[in-house]
Known about the structure:
135 residues; 4 helices
Amino acid sequence: xxxxxxxxxxxxxxxxxxxxxxxxxxxxxxxxxxxxxxxxxxxxxxxxxxxxxxxxxxxxxxxxxxxxxxxxxxxxxxxxxxxxxxxxxxxxxxxxxxxxxxxxxxxxxxxxxxxxxxxxxxxxxxxxxxxxxxx
Length: 135
């Protein structure tokens, strides 16, 4: 998979947090390290922010490597199976509805709640002539 496409699939909030942390860390290292302290302990607060931003960047790398890569791989393995079985269930439902309509001479024009209720009430799943009970 293309690395840019891989990163684009990460949620936008995580990407935004990473980019903001990267920008603030670079600004702190390039600009704020060379500015005189305006108040006491300003350097200590700068070190604290630097460690927070570095931690966010490390967490982003961990998220990409451990969580997101595994999630992408699992989706690529499970999606074809889920789509196959969802298609089978949908096909069975369509064939069941078609069988109900054929066996009771129903059409969309004469379909009422009462006709459908009677058709479903008289449906016999164990009837060998219908496909209603075959799963």
